[in-house]
Specification:
By secondary structure, the protein is an alpha/beta fold. About 40% of the residues lie in helices and about 20% in strands. Helix 5 links the parallel strand 5 and strand 6. The radius of gyration is 19 Å and the shape is globular. The chain starts with a strand and ends with a helix. The model has no long low-confidence stretch (mean pLDDT about 95). The chain binds 1,4-dihydronicotinamide adenine dinucleotide.
Length: about 300
């Protein structure tokens, strides 16, 4: 099995590192447009193999897509990251051109690949990738955006801090758009080993957890001077793992909606079952009225951004 990661920057290299260490596939190709960067990072990572104890081969490529041929999954992280004070949405113009070109090249060499889109603004980039992929005959279930997996891990982090419990015992998911104002941390459905979190902390504390989650990325951007990479890298890797190993795991991810959750002609975060064929099924969480309204508002905001693509 083979995975390509496009963009050997902070998130791409961390994703490749995690995939190699977990020995999910035999071969990882790291591709970047900057001369030598992907080769250098691939070599650096390969020099951890005897220490980490993995046999995955990591190959670097400066924009040579022939090396990516016959990839099973391709993670697309190429593009600009956020700087402090920037929204994910401000990246749209530059990253749209990059994502369009990358998807076309990738599918030319790996027509059967499942695409995992990470570049921001992610829901819009996933929608764009889907359009390109569908024009090249790819099924919509093979185009998936990574955002909810990361936002949910941030949600569980803030929730565990507020509750004083292990993150591993929490079930808490974020749906909707992958934006500071568009994501929806589902506090009503958050549980500690099946017991509603609302039984352990106050309504106000839960609301603060949700608010902290929504600006979780911006908080890190403020501290780091650029966007985060450890959690985005492992979130991407865990989705690749669910696909390659056909785990049938439920993960919130941005996929093409056709009436589900009341939306059409949009890619937006919903819980999906991930397996060898991509996103195999959308899970219906049965949102209450307030959550449905938040989801519709989130869809409106993402749709406005998608409209920028055609201007
Ligand atoms: P980075 O700047 O460290 O890496 C981006 C890499 O993409 C650079 O090495 C650059 O040379 C490369 N690149 C640019 N154009 C390319 C092209 N046409 N072909 C191949 N490579 C190209 O940025 P970082 O931190 O790795 O972030 C990457 C993207 O992921 C950003 O758009 C960021 O906003 C997004 N992101 C998304 C997250 C999510 O949850 N969906 C989480 C974190 C970051």
């Amino acid at each position: 099995m083979k995975v390509t990661v496009v963009g050997a920057g902070a998130v791409g290299a961390t994703t490749a590192d995690n995939i190699a260490r977990k020995q999910i596939v035999d071969e990882v190709v790291l591709l970047d447009i900057k001369q030598g960067v992907a080769e250098g990072k691939a070599m650096d990572l390969m020099q951890t193999a005897s220490l980490e104890g993995f046999d995955t081969k990591i190959i670097g490529s400066t924009n040579d897509y022939a090396k990516t041929a016959k990839s099973d999954v391709v993670v697309i992280t190429s593009g600009l990251p956020r700087k402090p004070g920037m929204t994910r949405e401000e990246l749209i113009g530059i990253n749209a051109g990059i994502v369009k070109g990358v998807v076309t090249q990738i599918l030319t060499y790996s027509p059967k690949a499942i695409l995992l889109i990470v570049s921001n603004p992610m829901d819009t980039m996933t929608y764009l990738a889907l359009q390109v992929a569908q024009s090249m005959g790819v099924n919509k279930k093979r185009v998936i955006g990574m955002g909810g997996a990361l936002d949910s891990s941030r949600f569980r982090y803030y929730l565990s801090q507020a509750m004083g419990v292990s993150q591993g015992d929490l079930h808490a998911n974020v749906i909707g758009g992958h934006g500071d104002t568009t994501m929806i941390p589902l506090t009503r459905l958050a549980t500690w080993n099946g017991i509603p979190a609302s039984r352990f902390i106050s309504k106000e504390a839960l609301a603060k957890v949700a608010a902290d989650t929504m600006v979780g990325g911006a908080t890190l951007t403020g501290l780091l001077g650029t966007s985060a990479w450890y959690a985005p890298g492992i979130a991407s890797c865990s989705m690749v793992e669910a696909i390659i190993r056909d785990e049938k795991r439920i993960v919130p991810a941005s996929v093409s909606l056709n009436g589900e959750y009341g939306q059409k002609d949009i890619c937006l975060g919903v819980p999906v079952v991930l397996g060898r064929n991509g996103w195999e099924k959308i899970v219906n969480y049965r949102l209450n009225k307030e959550e449905q309204e938040a989801f519709a508002k989130s869809a409106d905001a993402v749709r406005n951004m998608n409209n920028v693509l055609s201007t």
